[in-house]
Design goal:
Blueprint (H helix, E strand, L loop, with lengths): L10 H10 L3 E4 L10 E5 L2 E7 L13 H10 L3 E5 L2 H12 L5 E4 L2 H5 L1
Helix pairs in contact: 1-3
Length: about 110
């Protein structure tokens, strides 16, 4: 029997913000097996968003083994790791441009680097 999906505390706020920007958002959090939390459609493009809680320690924001396995199998498609509303909206802007496939860590630290 499958347990209820655990979502990060910022999951709902990120969904609301993405929709306010005109994106279509489907939560996939209940799927499990390492599948990213969100399927996002924007400007005729699709991407997956993995939501991490930016207020947690870096070790608690790492990809789980199931998430890493899923990414290895599906990494030819764009996957954004977002930690807050700001990084999620930034990912939308990247979706509007031609983005290369693979993992796009849109965390605050990655943008500053």
């Amino acid at each position: 029997m499958r347990r209820a999906a655990k979502v990060d505390s910022n999951h709902a706020a990120i969904c609301v913000a993405l929709r306010a920007c005109g994106a279509k958002v489907q939560s996939l959090a209940g799927v499990g097996d390492g599948v990213p939390d969100l399927l996002v459609g924007f400007r005729k493009r699709l991407a997956c968003f993995e939501v991490k809680d930016g207020s947690r320690s870096p070790s608690q924001r790492r990809l789980t083994p199931d998430q890493a396995k899923w990414l290895a199998e599906w990494g030819e498609f764009p996957v954004f790791v977002v930690e807050d509303v700001e990084s999620a909206i930034h990912a939308l802007h990247l979706m509007g441009d031609a983005i290369p496939p693979g993992l796009h860590p849109q965390t605050s630290e990655a943008r500053r680097a």
